[in-house]
């Protein structure tokens, strides 16, 4: 008996579960002849942690055929449920190589065993699994048939063809007499996103158990009867049915905002259904079901009742609901403005800020009253609200607002200062004369120098620069406050000329990094590519190099490439990454060889950046290089390669990923591989690209 | 593991550590530490050892060479290693020579460009820069030209202080009272350089050994580098002088401190004998200047 067998056997007999878990972990070292017995012993352990560890380790044991056979045999276990479930988990982890043995086992196992085999096949993304599952729909045992239908709901992980086979098989099952089989089939079809004609689902609309699936399918149809059924369901006595209808309508409205035909048709119908408004409102108010609540917002918007506006307001600070609430409020247009502002008054700052930002989108061409409200918000105690008001004034303010806005440009809160700067700049370009008058007395050494520079920059943008402006900017470059120096540089970039360029160039030696970055941006605006190239070559700071490459790339892609190329092999990963990003951003096919070279960099971070850049254009060569990265020594690189390859739907890619899954031992990479194999980009893109009505196919599963 | 507090835990700079650090500092900054400077270096850098929770100068040497945050640490070290003592209108005989003999010469040279540029290399807290700017204004020779006086120093804190342009009474010990009245305004925190002078002066952080950074300055009519080279070793001194030569216009002049010379450093300059001083001038037809073919 080898040392490993002795040690693992001894550990498995210990009373302490952690010792037995360690035994399971060490199982890979046990010779093939003895490993199966020990593995089954660990999988049958009373402690779930030991069983879990053994299930994970099973996929890493080299004697795969023996292990698979032992695990299949364990499916016959009648007493120890833990062992059976752990065997299922282990076989799923083993993946495709376990499929033939599992399919064979379907012939000889009893009904309980076959149900487990069906679960295993459902967990392994493999077209052979899908075929076996479609056959299992005709199994002698009802539970096995239902389990097979349920398992087919994941068939899309095995690719488009497998998904299509599964959908066709499930549709056939819908004519069965078995309620549970139909239920499982409808649920699976929903999960597969199958777009089938309304007549397929219509028979179930009156079935108390199956109708929720019919309702869900109705929102994918433009059939008049489907829309009627959908609208009626919003006032159904069953809360489950109302939820299904609200989610179906809301998600279609959200997903296809330009499908006005659907919006108008469903709006007309739901408004005509008694009690629908109250039922939908109840869903919009409740907070424990985000998905239903978000969808209910959009349906509630269809009723156009301003009484409902407070319901949307509190959602404006919830990231998961914000977009839905905004979309719902758009339905009201300018009618929402007054009630919104009134409700927001008593709310927390984030809500007040959100409402201020939203109002201009509801009311094109602001009224004097609205303008006064926005200006009044500048006195709010919250910087968040003030910043929001300033952002609104940037587009809707007038000349009289300039002086008031300027008082915020040096605000201690950076959000406020930035918003004020942008607003001031915007207003100065529109009201040049008034802006100059407002700041003609401001000295370049004064604390307000940055404001004067900002205004000069804005005036220069509209050709309203004066002779003495350059002297003001020169003096501002000597200001002790880095903000003033930055503003001066921004303005000098717009003013232009050799003197401005000299001053900006020397600012690269400023002791403040922010000023150096501003100088680099300014040189980019001026198109001083030589200076930027020398920054790239001589600088040690990766941030400055990246900024210089970015500024350079706007003006001179060739110079960018020449400057960045030598840095791709820099031992400093930050510098190499900046160079790779810069070359990737150029997007030129002739530079791709350098990106491929970067995959050989010693630092995994650089390789990951290169992979990301390469993936923006996944041609055959790129796929080959990404495929090679599946064998990279760094698990992070392997995982990213999996994710990027997973978004590409070629058969070759699928088999590459499958092959890697067989060999991969790192759990995180295995997870990424499984995820990658489950992504179906073609299906996703078809949903994103067009509304259901525009791609409706009378023949059923054609698209 | 953190060390126990107390004076007994302070590390000493061993001779072999001194040699390593001295050479590293010299290579990076050019600052020279002679055979007797071990205890001076130990005294200056000891606080960094404590701040970084290191246990020896050998560890500090390793930190400066290899740590991801070494660039920031070089800033800190440089602040401690540089000498910043200076004042306005220092070494008046040189300044007289600049105003009365060099500026008229430069006015002729710079006239076609309508631009005068002067660089104070190693400007510390800016006293020399403002002094030169005032002298240029006082000369009255460049009223139609753009005037830029650049100041550079390796110390970030010095550059920030220079840009402020605020000085205490001690900085004026050599300043003629009428110039102090004319170019400075008294405020509660000290004497402020007036805007007219400040607008001519630009400051940057620069290691003189970094010739890429020096190129940011463009060409210069005059360079002042007084009492800087004495702290710098011979190879670094040569490199810096080469940078100056490259940055000067043909005919441009270089001012060094009264105890400094280019003997055994460079033969590329010619000596210009003035009434009270001598300065180095880049030959009008310099073989080493690419602009002269």
Largest sheet of chain A at a glance? none
- Under the CATH scheme, the architecture of the largest domain in chain B is 3-Layer(aba) Sandwich
Class per helix and strand makeup of chain A: mainly alpha
How is the largest sheet of chain B built, in terms of strand order? 6-2-1-7-8-10-9
Stretches with pLDDT under 50, minimum 5 residues of chain A: 680-703
Count of helical regions of chain B:
11
Average pLDDT metric of chain A: 87
What is the assembly state of the chains in this entry?
heterodimer
Number of domains of chain B: 2
Name the shape of chain A in a single word. globular
- CATH top level of the largest domain in chain B? Alpha Beta
- Percent range of helical residues of chain B: 40-55%
**What is the H/E order of chain B?**
HHHHHEHEHEHEEHEHEHEEE
Low-confidence stretches of chain B: 1-8, 289-293
Distance between the termini of chain B: 62 Å
Task: Examine the coordinates and then state which fold CATH places here, giving the name of the CATH topology of the largest domain in chain B.
Answer: Rossmann fold
Could you characterize what this model shows?
The complex is a heterodimer of chains A (703) and B (293). Chain A has 703 residues and is an all-alpha fold. In chain A, helix 5 runs antiparallel to helix 6 (81-94) and helix 37 (573-586) runs parallel beside helix 39 (604-614). The longest helix of chain A is centred in the middle third of the chain and has 17 residues, at 239-255. The radius of gyration of chain A is 33 Å and the shape is globular. Chain B has 2 domains: 7-81, Chemotaxis receptor methyltransferase CheR, N-terminal domain (Chemotaxis Receptor Methyltransferase Cher, domain 1); 92-292, 3-Layer(aba) Sandwich (Rossmann fold). In chain B, helix 5 (92-110) crosses helix 6. Chain B has 293 residues and is an alpha/beta fold. Chain B starts with 14 loop residues before the first helix and ends in a 12-residue tail after the last strand. Helices cover 41% and strands 18% of the residues of chain B. Chain B is globular and about 60 Å long. The chains are: A mainly alpha (703), B alpha/beta (293). Chain A binds chain B through residues 443-445, 471, 474-475, 477-480, 499, 502-503, 505-511, 531, 534, 537-541, and chain B through 71, 146, 148, 150, 152, 156, 159-160, 163-165, 195, 198-199, 201-206, 210, 212-213, 215-218.
């Amino acid at each position: 008996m080898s040392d490993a067998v002795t040690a693992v056997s001894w550990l498995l007999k210990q009373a302490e579960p952690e010792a037995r878990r360690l035994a399971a972990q060490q199982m890979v070292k046990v010779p093939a002849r003895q490993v199966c017995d020990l593995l089954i012993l660990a999988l049958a352990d009373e402690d779930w942690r030991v069983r879990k560890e053994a299930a994970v380790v099973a996929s890493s044991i080299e004697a795969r055929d023996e292990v698979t056979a032992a695990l299949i045999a364990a499916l016959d276990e009648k007493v120890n449920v833990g062992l059976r479930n752990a065997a299922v988990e282990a076989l799923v982890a083993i993946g495709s190589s376990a499929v033939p043995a599992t399919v064979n086992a379907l012939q000889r196992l009893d009904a309980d065993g076959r149900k487990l085999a069906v679960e295993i096949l459902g967990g392994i993304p493999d077209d052979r699994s899908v075929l076996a599952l479609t056959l299992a729909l005709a199994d002698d045992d009802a539970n096995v048939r239902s389990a097979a239908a349920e398992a087919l709901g994941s068939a899309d992980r095995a690719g488009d063809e497998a998904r299509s086979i599964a959908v066709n098989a499930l549709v056939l099952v819908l004519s069965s007499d078995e309620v549970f089989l139909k239920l499982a089939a409808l649920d699976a079809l929903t999960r597969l996103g199958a777009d089938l004609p309304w007549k397929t689902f219509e028979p179930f609309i009156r079935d108390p158990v199956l109708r929720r699936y019919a309702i869900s399918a109705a929102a994918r149809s433009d059939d008049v009867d489907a829309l009627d059924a959908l609208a009626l369901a919003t006032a159904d006595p069953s809360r489950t049915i109302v939820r299904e209808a609200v989610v179906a309508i809301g998600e279609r409205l959200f997903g296809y905002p330009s499908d006005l035909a659907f919006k108008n048709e469903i709006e007309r119908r739901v408004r005509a259904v008694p009690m629908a408004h109250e039922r939908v409102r109840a869903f919009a108010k409740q907070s424990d079901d985000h998905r239903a609540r978000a969808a209910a917002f959009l349906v509630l918007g269809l009723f156009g009742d301003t009484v409902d506006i407070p319901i949307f307001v509190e959602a404006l600070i919830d990231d998961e609901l914000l977009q839905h609430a905004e979309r719902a409020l758009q339905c009201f247009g300018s009618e929402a403005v007054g009630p919104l502002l009134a409700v927001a008054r008593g709310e927390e700052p984030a809500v007040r800020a959100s409402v201020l930002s939203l109002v201009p989108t509801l009311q094109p061409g602001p009224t004097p009253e609205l303008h006064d409200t926005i200006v009044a918000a500048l006195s709010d105690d919250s910087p968040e609200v003030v910043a929001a008001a300033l952002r609104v004034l940037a587009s809707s303010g007038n000349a009289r607002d300039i002086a008031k806005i300027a008082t915020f440009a040096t605000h201690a809160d950076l959000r406020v200062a930035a918003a004020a700067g942008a607003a001031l700049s915007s207003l100065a370009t529109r009201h040049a004369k008034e802006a100059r008058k407002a700041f003609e007395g401001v000295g370049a050494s004064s604390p307000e120098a940055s404001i004067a520079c900002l205004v000069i920059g804005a005036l220069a943008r509209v050709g309203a620069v004066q002779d003495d402006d350059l002297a003001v900017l020169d003096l501002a470059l000597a200001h002790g406050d880095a903000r003033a120096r930055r503003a001066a540089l921004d303005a000098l970039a717009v003013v232009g000329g050799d003197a401005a360029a000299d001053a900006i160039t020397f600012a690269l030696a400023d002791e403040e990094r922010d000023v150096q970055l501003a100088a680099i941006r300014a040189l980019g605006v001026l198109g001083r590519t030589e200076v930027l190239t020398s920054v790239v070559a001589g600088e040690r700071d990766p941030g400055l190099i990246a900024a210089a490459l970015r500024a350079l790339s706007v003006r001179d892609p060739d110079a960018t490439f020449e400057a960045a190329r030598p840095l791709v092999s820099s031992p400093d990963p930050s510098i190499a990454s900046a160079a790779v990003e810069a070359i990737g951003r150029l997007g030129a096919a002739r530079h791709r060889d350098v990106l491929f070279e970067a995959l050989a960099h010693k630092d995994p971070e650089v390789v990951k950046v290169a992979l990301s850049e390469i993936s923006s254009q996944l041609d055959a060569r790129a796929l080959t290089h990404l495929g090679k990265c599946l064998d990279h020594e760094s698990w992070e690189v392997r995982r990213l390669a999996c994710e990027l390859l997973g978004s590409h739907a070629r058969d070759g890619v699928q088999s590459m990923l499958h092959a890697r899954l067989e060999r991969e031992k790192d759990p995180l990479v295995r997870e990424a591989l499984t995820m990658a194999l489950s992504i179906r980009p073609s299906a996703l893109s078809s949903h994103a690209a067009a509304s259901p009505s525009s791609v409706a196919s009378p023949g059923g599963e054609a698209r | 593991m953190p060390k126990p507090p107390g004076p007994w835990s302070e590390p000493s700079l061993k001779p072999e550590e001194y040699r390593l650090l001295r050479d590293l500092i010299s290579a990076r900054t050019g600052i020279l530490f002679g055979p007797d400077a071990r205890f001076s270096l130990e005294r200056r850098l000891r606080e960094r050892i404590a701040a970084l929770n290191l246990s020896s100068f050998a560890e500090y040497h390793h930190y400066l060479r290899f740590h991801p945050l070494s660039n920031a640490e070089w800033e800190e070290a440089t602040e401690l290693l540089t000498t910043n003592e200076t004042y306005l209108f220092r070494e008046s005989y040189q300044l007289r020579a600049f105003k009365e003999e060099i500026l008229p010469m430069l006015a002729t040279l710079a006239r076609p460009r309508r631009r005068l540029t002067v660089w104070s290399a190693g400007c510390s807290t800016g006293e020399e820069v403002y002094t030169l700017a005032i002298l240029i204004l006082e000369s009255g020779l460049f009223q139609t030209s753009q005037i830029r006086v650049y100041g550079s120093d390796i110390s970030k804190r010095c550059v920030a202080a220079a840009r402020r342009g605020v000085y205490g009474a001690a900085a004026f010990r050599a300043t003629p009272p009428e110039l102090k009245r004319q170019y400075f305004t008294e405020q509660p925190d000290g004497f402020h350089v007036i805007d007219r002078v400040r607008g001519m002066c630009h400051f940057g952080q620069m290691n003189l050994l970094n010739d890429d950074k020096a190129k940011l300055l463009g060409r210069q009519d005059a360079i002042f580098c007084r009492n800087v080279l004495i702290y710098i070793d011979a190879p670094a001194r040569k490199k810096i002088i080469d940078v100056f030569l490259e940055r000067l216009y043909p005919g441009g002049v270089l001012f060094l401190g009264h105890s400094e010379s280019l003997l055994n450093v460079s033969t590329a300059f010619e000596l210009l004998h003035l009434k009270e001083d001598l300065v180095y001038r880049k030959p009008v037809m310099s073989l080493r200047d690419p602009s002269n073919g």
